[in-house]
Backbone:
């Protein structure tokens, strides 16, 4: 059984155990809010602002500091593990900066992956309309809701926890998410990011914190030394840019690598007759043999080097080019030509 976390009790502040548990709002999945719901939301916004102002008036802050994080981890019996890429943010200014840089608005439904002990979750709840957090770790998932209820009781009804592996999540409770904001576990950052973008097309923008090298790869442009599979696949969904750096000393334990912020703004995918899966198959083949020309690298994908050359020429791409030179639109054109060639040969 997970130990309960006993937060510091502030003078004049009521907690759930004092009989003030907030009432949650019921949402039908994906259903638009009615006019009455919007009226309730106006009252809810006032309640959120009043609660935040009251905290400032009494000199309190719901966000977690270094001492809070270590105390909470001890109460939950949590020891950060490298296997799951667990490095908890211990600096309140950092999570405020992430929320500000992400451009989170009062009407946003934010999806957070890997909330950990709740440092970023609490900051998101101070601004967003609703936060849905996905956490796979049993101990962390077991303590997160209680942390929200204790530190932001007036917002607890606007928080939902999904205890699951993010790579297996294809549905979420409540209204569809509009923004992705997360400190992604470094060992699975790219596959989790791509899975979420594919599974939830309502995500219009996002800001993720990842290992600095991964941030460079995600935001890289064609021709860059680090341009590769993550760069192309991310650009299928979004305009991707670096949005800043994060130092090591804001984490516990401090990682051995630097971190970076990546901004994502949803865009329409390239116009093509090929499916996303068909385009991504070309991308994977092109970078599996990065040093080879596309005529050689795509030979197995196309069936032969001659068929690869035909698809490349039909797409207006030089057979002597390499994958690192191509945009996602050019990969889409190659996939479409390859599909047509296979259909004609059948």
Residues:
């Amino acid at each position: 059984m997970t130990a309960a976390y006993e937060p510091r009790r502030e003078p004049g502040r009521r907690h759930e155990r004092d009989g003030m548990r907030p009432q949650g709002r019921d949402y039908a999945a994906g259903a638009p809010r009615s006019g009455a719901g919007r009226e309730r939301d106006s009252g809810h916004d006032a309640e959120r602002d009043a609660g935040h102002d009251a905290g400032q008036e009494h000199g309190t802050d719901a966000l977690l500091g270094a001492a809070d994080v270590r105390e909470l981890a001890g109460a939950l019996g949590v020891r950060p593990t490298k296997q799951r890429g667990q490095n908890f943010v211990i600096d309140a200014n950092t999570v405020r900066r992430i929320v500000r840089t992400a451009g989170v608005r009062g009407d946003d439904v934010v999806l957070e992956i890997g909330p950990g002990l709740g440092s970023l979750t609490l900051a998101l709840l101070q601004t967003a309309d609703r936060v849905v957090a996905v956490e796979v770790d049993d101990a962390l998932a077991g303590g997160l809701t209680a942390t929200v209820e204790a530190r932001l009781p007036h917002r607890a009804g606007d928080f939902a926890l999904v205890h699951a592996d993010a790579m297996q999540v294809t549905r979420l409770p409540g209204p569809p998410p509009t923004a992705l904001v997360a400190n992604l576990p470094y060992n699975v950052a790219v596959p989790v990011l791509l899975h979420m973008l594919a599974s939830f097309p309502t995500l219009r923008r996002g800001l993720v914190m990842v290992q600095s090298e991964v941030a460079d790869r995600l935001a890289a442009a064609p021709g860059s030394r680090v341009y590769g599979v993550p760069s192309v696949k991310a650009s299928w969904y979004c305009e991707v840019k670096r949005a800043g750096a994060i130092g090591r000393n804001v984490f516990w334990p401090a990682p051995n690598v630097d971190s970076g912020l990546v901004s994502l703004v949803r865009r329409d995918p390239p116009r093509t007759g090929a499916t996303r899966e068909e385009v991504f198959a070309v991308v994977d083949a092109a970078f599996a043999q990065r040093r080879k020309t596309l005529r050689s690298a795509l030979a197995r994908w196309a069936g032969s080097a001659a068929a690869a050359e035909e698809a490349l020429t039909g797409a207006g791409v030089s057979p002597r080019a390499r994958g690192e030179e191509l945009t996602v639109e050019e990969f889409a054109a190659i996939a479409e030509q390859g599909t047509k060639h296979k259909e004609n040969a059948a």
